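Bit of a strange request maybe. I'm writing a small parser for structure token strings and I need a real example to test against, not something I typed by hand. Could someone generate the tokens for this chain?
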Amino acid sequence: MENYGYTKTENDQNQQNNGPYRSEKKIPAALLGILVGWLALNKFYLGYKKEALIQLGLNIITCGAASIIPFIEGILYLFMSDKQFDDTYVYGKKGWL
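Reply from user aminoacidic:
Good idea to test on real output. This should exercise your parser:
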């Protein structure tokens, strides 16, 4: 059986739950991106320190215009399924869009 990047404990918990899959990080990350994306808090929240510092630098250089990036990311997070979000951003560690 393939585990697709999940630990045995995570697989066991998901199988025991038998309910719909829920991401713990999706909604907070989306709201941080939409509401305070100029601070790169969505990146820090997901554990992307390097990308967060780049985002902060871009916001300083562009006088805040680059804050459209985390805003768009937040919207994308909301429209993804919870499983897809976790596979892409939590386990897959995709740093940008």
